[in-house]
Amino acid sequence: METSKIPPIKEEDLQELLLTLPSEKNLDGTNSLYLYQGAWMSAYVLRAVYSFQRHFIAQDTDIIVGSMPKSGTTWLKALAFSVAKRHIYGPKESPLLTTTPHELVRFIETDLYSKDQQPNLEQLPPPRIFGCHSHYANLPESIRISKCKVVYICRNPLDQIVSFFQFAHRFKQDGTPFLSLDECCDNICRGVHSQGPFWDNVLGYWKASLERPDKVLFLKYEDLKEDIVSNLKKLAEFLEIPFTDKEEKEGVIEEISRLCSFDNLRNLEVNKNGVRPSGAPNSAFFRKGEVGDWANYLSPSMAENFMNIVKEKLAGSGLTFKTSQ
Ligand code: PAP
């Protein structure tokens, strides 16, 4: 077991905790979101985060793929898996051809700590790779103090939010009405959305990447779209498994980028069919994969309003976003 010394939280204690937290509606009109340790999340996620924080013990060889939801997590999971495990599986026999990126790299909070408060993760072969949407400040201490690596992907907040909204529309099953676009914009501008505020989520990792560049690698979705090859090299170097000259000559980097490309992954049978345990169809993780799609959904004034708030929150950090191709 990872650590069994701390007893799991009792359901009644969790319910009591929820009662003490500020709560608001999620963008899809369902489940209240709770503000827990500076991050908005559903009760379901909170339960998992609570256990993850208390029970997870990082190993020095772990790789944590961090992100705000809908920022390119699926893509980065596929890339990190392909780079880190390339000595076991070459691109032609990659498990990505038959297994979804989310199955190969599971979300540490919701996939692993939601059902079982103390899952046995020790049997997983190194390097263990996990996905994670938590804020940097809320990661378990052992992630920050071990030698494990954290790779974070961020996306411009306009595309991120539109992607989230579209995703939620694609698999919503109950009859609760969605918040209107105006209500959504109001919530987002206040930072009230899953794993928001946006600025706190990205800034935590951004600052950590500046302070500890060997520990946290900060990538941008738009940069990956523009130049996947140099970003793959950066990723491999950061993970301390740089591509060799031989690999470069043999075109391994290009093969990985092709394997993990939007068009390739989206058209694989495994990603066209089936559903995630959350009920989301696997296909919903591959929608358009473009930079600037927000312009088809948000009015210029909505976008300007939100971006002004984001810029104000990020002022002085040096972090900027590209919002169009
Ligand atoms: P998650 O955080 O719930 O796992 P995530 O993968 O971050 O979701 O977001 C999905 C977005 O990434 C979708 O963007 P869109 O709605 O604007 O289209 C999806 O299309 C995009 N995406 C998924 N795979 C890739 C890929 N291989 N390359 C580029 N974009 C991708």
Automatic annotation (TrEMBL):
Q: What is this protein called?
A: Sulfotransferase
**What InterPro entries would the database entry show?**
P-loop_NTPase, Sulfotransferase_dom
Q: Residue limits of the Sulfotransferase domain?
A: 60-318
The UniProt GO MF terms for this protein read: sulfotransferase activity
Alphabetical keyword list: Transferase
Q: State the similarity comment.
A: Belongs to the sulfotransferase 1 family.
Pfam families in the record: Sulfotransfer_1
Its Enzyme Commission number(s) read 2.8.2.-
Judging by the UniProt lineage, the source's domain of life is: Eukaryota
